[in-house]
Amino acid sequence: MSKVLVTGAAGFIGFHLSERLLKDGHEVVGLDNLNAYYDVRLKEARLARLQPKTGFRFEKLDLAERERMAKLFEKERFDIVVNLAAQAGVRYSLQNPHAYVDANLVGFINILEGCRHSGVKHLVFASSSSVYGANTTMPFSVHQNVDHPLSLYAATKKANELMAHTYSHLYRLPCTGLRFFTVYGPWGRPDMALFLFTKAIVEGNPITVFNHGKMRRDFTYIDDIVEGVVRVMNNTATPNAAWTGAKPDPATSNAPYRIYNIGNHEPVELMRFVDLIQEKLGRKAVIEYADMQAGDVPATYADVEDLSRDVGFAPGTPIETGIERFVKWYTEFYGVK
Q1: How many beta carbons lie within 10 A of that of residue 320, not counting itself?
Q2: Of 114, 138, 174, 198, which is least packed with CB atoms within 10 Å of its CB?
Q3: 30 in helix, strand or coil?
Q4: pLDDT tens for each residue of 230-276
């Protein structure tokens, strides 16, 4: 079994991935800075479920701390690194852009340097569907050009892909970037729509629906995300022998580098999403409509053909099932009557 570094282990995806890797028998070092971007108590509750498990160790550490990160890599000699730690959120990037530079750029170069100098066999890192930005050809394909981001968050994720490719080329470090599409499920992030809407409906407060409800999202259930990550981890990136600089493919390289979408490849209308939350809660929402916020995109839709071909898996949990599971978790965790 491998020794795996999971950054952002107290976060939504990192927590679920760590549980799965421990169940599979891996040794997991979970790193997180437990910042206050959202309620730290939720992060601590996730961590409290991980810490008693055999094979798990926690490091409270910020990716931007260069010397401490270097020492961690030197000491631990990880087999695989899964970088999920980041400053997340499109809308927050309008308010606090420097947080994205520190976590997503400075932090990521420290990850790359650690992997380079300690012989990591495979770096898997979280990118985002937001990199598609101004693209309108649906479904979004990893073979499309993505040079028109619409938020600083998206720009930092695109930068991560470029930085990883550079290290893959220079140092032959196998790197795989995963563009996640609107992840949801139990233990989810409080800044995401499902959590925000559920909380507001439970408390009798209005929900804000942007772009007057004319939004479509490729909602992807957390278990499908984790399954995709695990399969990619075990499928170390290799060079594409057919790659050519005369017609460069953005998703592959002559270096050991790959990009995949992980999405449910079935966009859902936002109002259908809201209707399902109301149905599963058994409560009505008070809806306030608003214009689309700066940095948002009207629709996301993942082409997962490459993922399916290379690792034999494509997400498929129906939105009805996923929302039901989230609502069950939310009402139990927060004691909703």
Answers
A1: 13
A2: 138
A3: strand
A4: 999 999 999 999 999 999 999 999 999 999 999 999 999 999 999 99
